[in-house]
Amino acid sequence: MRIRIHPHMPDGSTLYGVGQVVEAHDASSLVDAMRQETAFTAELTMAEFMAATLARVVPPEKPTELPADPAAAAVEFLTILAKLGRIAFLPDKGPQDAPEAQTAPTMEDGPCAAKQA
User: 105-114: long-range contacts at Cβ-Cβ below 8 A with a sequence spacing of 24 or more?
Assistant: First the structure.
């Protein structure tokens, strides 16, 4: 699984298409990777991290309670963040993403190719 965490501007607007990409084998591992990003959140349990994060991003008039099961809670947590535009689910990497499958850029691919003529 892969997600992109969208950064937000001070005015609350979202910068889509940019941001950190986090990759893990399942939803719980993704949430754990997010939790480990800072020393402040790494000390929290997974449940505490998810609750604290949702308390900051979910409007107060729409309180959210996660399932008791940790795996189901991670799925629900990520789903809520995606619905709020805080993250985006990305396709899993395929063979086309392997370094040996990528081709080197040519002169025509470069940003200054037009200036070469």
Answer: none
DSSP-derived secondary structure for 97-111: GSGGGSPPP-GGGST
State both tokens at 49.
Answer: 């991290």
Express each pLDDT in 30-52 by its tens digit. Answer: 999 999 999 999 999 999 999 99
The whole-model pTM stands at 0.76
Residues 6+ apart with CB under 8 A from 87: 3, 4, 5, 6, 78, 81
Structural tokens at position 59:
């409007």
CB atoms within 10 A of CB 5: 16
What pLDDT sits at residue 94?
60
Task: Please count the other Cβ atoms lying within 10 Å of the Cβ belonging to residue 15.
Answer: 10
CA distance 74 to 71: 5
DSSP structure class, residue 38: S
Residue reference for tokens 């795996």: 71
